[in-house]
Design a protein that fits this description.
By secondary structure, the protein is mainly alpha-helical. It has one domain (24-169): Arc Repressor Mutant, subunit A (Orthogonal Bundle). Helices cover 59% and strands 6% of the residues. It has seven helices and two strands. It has helices at residues 21-39, 44-49, 57-70, 79-86, 90-102, 124-145, 150-169, and strands at residues 106-110, 118-122. It has a two-stranded antiparallel sheet with strand order 1-2. The longest helix has 22 residues, at 124-145. Residues 20-165 form the HTH marR-type domain.
């Protein structure tokens, strides 16, 4: 028999939620597992290893962020954008961008709206690297989803995209 001192701490929620506790627990558990895998860079390493030229994992993260920004023409791709996308402080982002520039994957260009501001673009080498990264990651995801019915694959993609968009708008 457990005494109150031995009982596991109860989960306390500060506000009522319309989401079932079991759903929240399942999502939390899955997200913790994903975060652990990502922190080990278990997918980034094979991507970097399959590149025609060696690439640093931090440079790979920078070119991914610059590539993402290039798909959003309404927002200039700056060091601040990279910092935001990588969830790091601007000074660290600046150092990583400098390394990506030195490696020939990223180019600093003057902003067309504000000449005092530098924007970032991928070089041909950077575009080739990000293309190879997309290919390697998508091949991995294809293996993961193999055997899932097409309807479930599409639904998973839709819900995951919706979830990630929520991550961008709701603060902890």
């Amino acid at each position: 028999m457990t005494t109150p001192a031995q009982a596991p701490p109860a989960r306390v929620r500060e506000t009522a939620s319309p989401v079932d506790d079991d759903v929240l627990t399942a999502i939390e558990t899955a997200m913790v597992r994903i975060r652990r895998r990502q922190s080990r860079r278990s997918l980034a390493r094979p991507v970097a290893e399959e590149m025609p030229e060696p690439i640093d994992l931090n440079t790979l993260a920078v070119i991914d962020a610059v590539d993402e920004g290039a798909a959003r023409p309404e927002q200039p791709v700056t060091v601040g954008f990279v910092a935001d996308r990588l969830a790091i402080d601007p000074s660290r982002a600046s150092r990583l961008v400098t390394a990506a520039v030195k490696s020939g994957h990223v180019l600093r260009v003057a902003s067309q709206e504000d000449g005092r501001r530098s924007c970032l673009e991928l070089t041909d080498t950077g575009r080739a690297a990000v293309s190879a990264a997309h290919h390697t990651r998508q091949q991995f995801y294809a293996r993961l989803l193999e055997g899932w019915p097409e309807e479930e694959q599409r639904e998973f993609a839709r819900l995951l995209d919706k979830f990630v968009h929520s991550l961008d708008t709701v603060r902890p």
